[in-house]
Structure prediction request, 614 residues.
Amino acid sequence: MGVFKKVLWVIGKSFRYCFSSILVLALMNIIPGLIEIVVCIANRGVVNELVSSQAMGEASSMFVGFLLVYVILRLVQKAWGFLDGLGYNYARLNTGLLFNKILMWKSSQTPQEMFYRSDFMEKYSFVKNSADKIGFFLYVMAKILFGNIWSVAEIIVLFALYEPGLILYAAVVGIITMLIESYIAKKQYELDKRQVKEQRFHDYYKGLLTDKESARELRVYGYRENIYQKWETIYDKLREERLELALKRTSLNNRNEVAALLYRAVAVAILIAGVYWRRYDTGTFVMLFGLVEACLSQMSSLAYKLGNGAYKEVKYLCDYYDFVTPISDDEIMALKDQEFPPEGKLPFGPFRELKVENVSYTYPGSDKKAVDKVSLSIKKGEIISILGYNGSGKTTLSKLLNGSLPAKEGTVLLNGVPVCESNKEEVFSYFGNAPQEFFKFSVPLRDFVGLGRIGRMGDQDALLDAYRKAGIDSFLGKYREGDTLLLGKKYDNRGVDLSGGEWQKLVIASAYMGEPEILLMDEPTAAIDPLKEMEMLENFRENLKGKTAILISHRIGFARLADRIVMMEDGRIQEDGTHEELLKREGYYARIFREQKNLYEEEDNEGQEQERQK
Prediction:
């Protein structure tokens, strides 16, 4: 019953949101079945009229008519494959779009921490690779319901009228073929499921060998041969298991073909007996013989689609259903007619306070707390610097603050509202984020910056303001395309590959986009030349006046911008206070400040020397 419910859910959503596609599939399969029956009937008329015409010594008009109908229908049958393919692709693309949108929406709603779990990623990879199979499942179901079953029912009616013994023949053909195809389908699904982990390794190693991002390192370090051996080992394992299944399929299909010859021999014997005992005429014999071939073809096709198509695809469909549900019809409708959401009112009112109460977080598969019992309060208009070296927990804390990660213990409150999975989209609307790690989308520059406030992506004034604040005006002036410049060369050679510092400036511009309530910048100068960092810090100082900002870094230079400094180590807050207060305590901050102050002075001296040499 559970499987039946899931199948009905997919079919129901397809009928509701892609009705025209389902209608096309139905018509594309009903019509060929009707044509097949009419061809056999026309064939009967041709033979009987030919016999009559020979007795009269001339071709009758009925013979010519039947022959003309037969020829036309045969031509239509030959051309139908093109129409069937056209209808299938129309339906597949429409239904595929719907169910892929649902999958992508569900992925975006999935807690970020789930993507750190290998068991989830194996399931997610399997479902992601199976999403397009739903379109094929619907195609198969249309073939079964409106094609095979419809045609077989018509053939059985004619068998019942002229030669009932052939009904048993049809049943035997269908059952044996069904058992073979179901067995193969089960083994194929089990193999696909078993190979998910190896397939992920295969795809990763193949990506390393084929992507340009890794090509330089593989060549410089001489690591290509090692990676190639890893890929080849996994490839051979996958290939051997799939080859074994393919050989088993071939063996069973060959046996079925031999059995099919016996089926035909039995059917011909039955038909010859019918003519001999004068139960029907020669034309009916020819018609029934044609129906025997049609029945064998339709039964084999039906068994294949039920066993290797519907049976197997239903398993993929159930995995998909388990991943994407629950989802409401309102959400699906919004996805189907998706547009950029308009810029609306802040759901919890203008920002007043962000509060962290005794919050802890542990990544899946880890025993160590990345954030351990942290409490913190950030008021409107306050700029705080969260400082610490790698592994101190500052980046994890930033993800807890903006709702990207859910707190395992304790509470994060925005304007007094607890931040949780159900309201994280509303929480995101308060933040302008410049994360330490970001994906380099190969899109026009204006779109990349516009992602920071997607509801105002087309707002030219907001874009220009973000460009100015991030200091990329001069950068834009280098290119004729301006802010329509395509970033990266993933799919178009006209794109431009940027330096790490240029990418980081774009991320900062994205964070400024649309005047967010809270700016959250994680290591915003990590890819910037240290000699240019002071210039950027001055830029930040100007842009952050009157703003609420959270600046995360391991560099002490950010302390100059902050109203308050939070020092983290081993997931805990070690110190919290102003620059002057922390220096007086002679603690962790003071020690780090003195260490990095010398480094900044050395860099500053080097910069001045370079300027004099110029």
User: Anything to note?
Assistant: The longest strand covers residues 353-361. Strands lie at 353-361, 371-379, 383-387, 409-414, 417-418, 431-434, 518-522, 548-553, 564-569, 572-577. The CA atoms of residues 74 and 148 lie 19 Å apart. Confidence is low (pLDDT under 50) at residues 603-612.
